Amino acid sequence: MNRYAGIIVNNESVQVDKIFTYKIPEDLINKLKVGHRVKVPFGKGNRSIDGFILELYENCENVKGIKYISDICDDFTVLREEDVRLIKNMRERYLCTYLECIKVIIPTGITKGIRNKVKEVISIGNNLKDKFSKNPYLQIYEIVKENNGVYSKTEISNKFNVSLSSINTMIKHEFLLKGEEIVERFNNRSYSNYAEKRLNTEQEMVVNSILKSNRSMFLIHGITGSGKTEVYMNMVKHMINENKESIILVPEISLTPQMVERFKGRFGNDIAVFHSKLSDGERYDEWLRVKNKRVKVAIGARSAIFLPFDNLGMIVIDEEHEASYKSDSDPKYNAREVGELKCKIENCKLILGSATPSIETYYRCIKGEIELLTLKKRADGALLPDIQIVDMREELLRNNKSIFSKELYNGIDRALNNKEQIMLFLNRRGFSTFISCRQCGYVFQCDNCDISLTHHSSGNYLSCHYCGRKYPVRKVCPKCGSKYVKHFGVGTEKIEEEIKANFPSARVLRMDFDTTRKKNSYEYIYNTFKNGEADILVGTQMITKGLDFKNVTLVGVIAADLSLNLPDFRAGEKTFQLITQVSGRAGRGKKNGNVVVQTYNPDNYSIKYSSLNDYENFFKEEIGIRYNMNYPPFSKILSINISSKNENLLIKNIQKVGIILKNKLEKNNKINILGPCPCMLSKIKEYYRWQILIKGEFDMYVASAIKDIVYTNLQDSYSDIRISLDINSNNLL
Ligand code: ADP
Ligand code: ZN
Ligand code: ZN
To answer: How far, in Å, from the CA of 451 to the mean position of ligand 2?
Structure first.
């Protein structure tokens, strides 16, 4: 008999990140299971807070002063035993707290007290008699009989045009009864049928290999348009037939409309959809639909990996190379790694898919840890587009100062004349659009963040992309007073403007962070372009992935160099991925596609190999560089990032930690300590930022020792500084 429980309390402080033992009261002994949420008294004042049961014990050695659990919160367990194993594993791996792991697994709604949404519905009660056996009562009774327990009073009154007071009278005499119905908050809009396709030989081989293999991890390396989605859907069908469940992850929100359209169009509405734009209530309901076994398939962004399926057969991670699978808040998990952990814990298959696999994943295929499967042809027989590299330095020599090279301009003109669609890609992230003085070199920056400001022509203001602060446009340089203030680089807005100036009759749509903030705006832009109501789609990364528009024959990459010049060891990999992915949007229908890539570095290996569609050679060159420089996958990089509003306190503390770490780790010749030094973005929203990078080969024990050193030595300053530890972070800016 378990009389004690090991509990994580719902308190975010790092100091209480440990399992506390509580005694289970007599009446709950048979009820409580691992994973239950309970109320417990906590701290000196015995304040009542939520706790999560991670362990149960029969005996406890030190029972002096032990407190009792006060109550059980839900009639179901919010965590499964498998989740508890996952939590313990993630806490070590991602150097975070138990609570942070719990909170990423359960929907926020639970601790916030969100419950099912219920609606009052009317059903029939006693048979009508006496003076009620006539209209309007008779009519109302018949209506309710036909729609028993479906509508509320007002709905009946409005829909069938009957009097509300008559309904109330009938309720009073118990001829009608009030009841409650759970309303599920999710999008149950219907989608048109997405017919099943007969797999081609390549696709069939991939499916068969997965089904036959006794391995658990696979990479489908399939060129853009090779029909990976069809393979996933075929696998889902196999899983459903075996009564198993599937999770399909797609990168961030941007891909969901198309995927949802395809999956709901194929499998109907019984699919959970899980992404960051859902409200707390919607998340809770989708989570509960999974928990209550109402659905067998879930599609979603990163956090859908945690949905509580009980008989999980497979996890698909589409576009596995995507940076958005790594979380940048605690726990700083990577869905790919969590997928692998879940595979082991729940004994399911993990299928990664990409046209441009991450270097880490492909390297593991080479080493034989992941089974490599390839799709080399486009599924519907289309050809890969022709990719042309344009050297922008030569354009300048030819006196073309426009943002469009001659090739791209002519291509746009031709496509427009042929009534074909065009996609123009610009990676505006990074430091592309800055405003500076041509006379003295002054660059307009945000006072809070040390980041160059971006010009927004709609509204005519400058803004900081990190903190959002707005500044007025200035015509004169504040430093030297000259009037030669110029905009350098371009943003998506600028391209839209240039298109309108150069091709006034073209219908242009823009898709980027600014135009997709509202809940359904992405879907709106997607549908408008898909239905041919626009000729040109201008966009950022959002348009590079997955989208399948048949009438796009031209793709233009406005400035391939923007991603190449980021201070990041993954810059080459990211550039290869971006060019390949965005090129893959061209020529997906009957007509051939063309791609124009504009660059100032035409000889760079990632640009060269992406234009040749040569992943293998790109990989060889890149893995060589990683090896020589001792970058991942040959090492790990643990970044210790500390920020504070108080710069002196920050510097004093990080230097102290730096010295201690150097003393402890110096003897380990496989580890390099870089810094402490200010981050590339040395100030964000009034917070100064410094970092230490620890690069090398180290295991979880060393990482966890480093975590201890950092936290113990900064203990006195917890209230004034923020600490962030991240292993193999996506950006070290
Ligand atoms: P990927 O995800 O690999 O880029 P998609 O799954 O979007 O490719 O497929 C590209 C196109 O090929 C889609 O329009 C899809 O409907 C079509 N397709 C996929 N498989 C087949 C098939 N077996 N026969 C015919 N068309 C197919
Ligand atoms: Zn100046
Ligand atoms: Zn700012």
So the answer is: 18
- pTM for the whole thing? 0.81
Angstrom distance (rounded) from CA 406 to CA 408: 6
Positive or negative torsion for Cα 122, 126, 127, 131 = negative
Do residues 503 and 408 both lie within one domain?
Answer: yes
Q: Are both 312 and 457 inside the same structural domain?
A: no
Q: Which atom of ligand 1 is nearest to the CA of 199?
A: 23
**522-563: per-residue pLDDT in tens?**
888 888 999 999 999 998 877 776 677 888 999 999 888 777
Single residue among 490, 521, 537 that ends a domain in this structure = 490
Does any ligand 1 atom lie closer than 6 A to the CB of residue 181?
no
Q: Kindly give, in sequence order, each residue whose CB lies less than 8 Å from that of residue 367, ignoring residues fewer than 6 positions away.
A: none
Query: Which protein residue's CA is at the shortest distance from atom 25 of ligand 1?
Result: 380
DSSP class of 110: G
pLDDT at 114 over 90: no
**R_g of the chain, CA atoms, integer Å:** 29
- Do 45 and 98 sit in the same domain of this protein? yes
Helix pair angle (615-629, 571-583), 10° resolution: 170
Identify whether 191 is part of a domain.
no
Ligand 1, atom 15: closest residue by C-alpha: 227
**Can you say which residues are annotated as belonging to the binding site for Zn(2+)?**
437, 440, 446, 449, 464, 467, 477, 480
* Residue 196 neighbours by CB under 8 Å, 6+ apart: 233, 266
- Taking only the tens place, the pLDDT of each residue in 650-678 is 999 999 999 999 888 878 778 888 888 77
Q: How many CB atoms lie within 10 A of CB 440?
A: 12
